[in-house]
Amino acid sequence: MRFGGIVLAALLVLGGCSSDPVPKEPAATSATPASPTATPPDMPEQARQDSPEGAAAFVKYYVDVFNYAASTGDVDELSRLSAPTCEGCQSYISLYRKTYDAGGYFKGADWTLGDLRLQEEDGTSYVTTIAKANPGPYRATANDPERTSTGQDNQVSFAVSKTKSAWHVDQLGLGGVE
Question: Is residue 37 situated within a structural domain?
Answer without folding.
Answer: no
